[in-house]
Design a protein that fits this description.
By secondary structure, the protein is α+β, with helices and mostly antiparallel strands. Helix content is 37%, strand content 33%. The chain folds into 2 domains: 124 residues, Electron Transport, Fmn-binding Protein, Chain A (Pnp Oxidase, Chain A), CATH 2.30.110.10; 60 residues, no CATH class. It has 6 helices and 8 strands; from the N terminus they run αβββαβαββββααα. The protein binds flavin mononucleotide. Flavin mononucleotide (FMN) binds next to strand 2, strand 3, helix 2, helix 3 and helix 4.
């Protein structure tokens, strides 16, 4: 379990997959010592953790997978598990019990309750990632997806100014994505839903 955590610089945010009882969603995690911290702003995973506080955090270098999971686009994944825990086959990570405290949170998107979670690793998940190099196109797609999920929240909360800013940034990241050779339908889909009022 040290193995996986040692690859994470303390204090730096990494995008990983949170696997709960029946859900998988991307979350940003930060390592502090031998533990991993992440924040959940509502959603299905938060509800599942309340009923069953056992989860896995796993790395992937497949940005399209991260984006699909964030946007709830169906994906095919193979799972394994041991009793309380479940994880995606062949993706490196850790599993452990999750504890949290809830705090009120306010930012430009409005008010929310944030679940500040800590995962204490109990076991390691062995995996091997395909030898896929970093691509700057992937980075822009990731930013598009993050802003797109935030745009949904801004619109629900009637924050039209913030929504406009997020739309502009999504369009900028889309053009950079294309410039670096990105051609995923996911990016087209995100852009198209901006015109549909999303
Ligand atoms: C790269 C990336 C990172 C994300 N990180 C978080 C996070 O740390 N916490 C969070 O609540 N939502 C995060 N999201 C948004 C969730 O994936 C999204 O809101 C999801 O639909 C809610 O998860 P659910 O499946 O548990 O309902 C992230 C999205 C992306 C694209």
């Amino acid at each position: 379990m040290r193995g996986f955590l040692e690859f994470l610089n303390e204090g730096q945010v990494y995008e990983v997959l949170l696997v709960t009882r029946s859900n998988v969603t991307p979350v940003g995690v930060v390592r502090g010592g031998n533990r991993l911290f992440f924040k959940l702003f509502g959603g299905k995973s938060a509800g599942e953790l309340r009923d069953h506080p056992y989860a896995s955090l796993q790395a992937t270098n497949d940005v399209e997978l991260i984006v699909k999971l964030a946007l709830n686009v169906p994906v095919k994944l193979e799972f394994e598990g041991n009793g309380r825990y479940r994880w995606i086959r062949a993706l490196p990570g850790v599993y452990g019990r999750v504890t949290w405290r809830e705090e009120p949170h306010e930012d430009e998107l409005g008010k929310a309750t944030v679940m500040k979670c800590t995962l204490e690793p109990e076991g390691t998940i062995d995996g091997n990632l395909p030898p896929r190099p970093l691509s700057r196109a992937d980075w822009h797609l990731l930013e598009m997806a993050v802003d797109f999920t935030r745009l949904g929240v801004a619109l629900r909360n009637g924050k039209t100014g913030v929504a406009r800013k997020l739309r502009e940034r999504i369009v900028t990241n889309y053009s950079l994505y294309r410039r670096f050779g990105g051609s995923s339908e996911l990016a087209e889909g995100i852009l198209a839903s901006l015109d549909e009022g999303g």
